[in-house]
Structure prediction request, 94 residues.
Amino acid sequence: MTKADIVNRVASETGMTKTDVAMVVEGMLSALSNAMIQGDRVEIRGFGVFKVVDRAPRVARNPRTGEAIPLPARKSPVFVPSRLLRKKVEEKLR
Prediction:
């Protein structure tokens, strides 16, 4: 599903114009991105948590040559789904 698909679906379900929905979607994604860039945790009840985690440095291997490649520590964005969302997905995909 793309951003355009989300805009179309929300517009059809709410009766709002696609332009208005697109502005809301862009605003939400911008707010979410900015919060994560600042290191904040974003919790949407019943959906999940967006957060930034620290990844430890590690040694990876080049699969072609087997050469060891050191990877530095880094920060990585993560989404953790809520129990409710996990349950709904699990029930729907059975």
User: Anything to note?
Assistant: Strands lie at 42-44, 48-55, 58-61, 68-71, 74-81. The chain is about 45% helix and 30% strand. The mean pLDDT is 95. The CA atoms of residues 11 and 84 lie 25 Å apart.
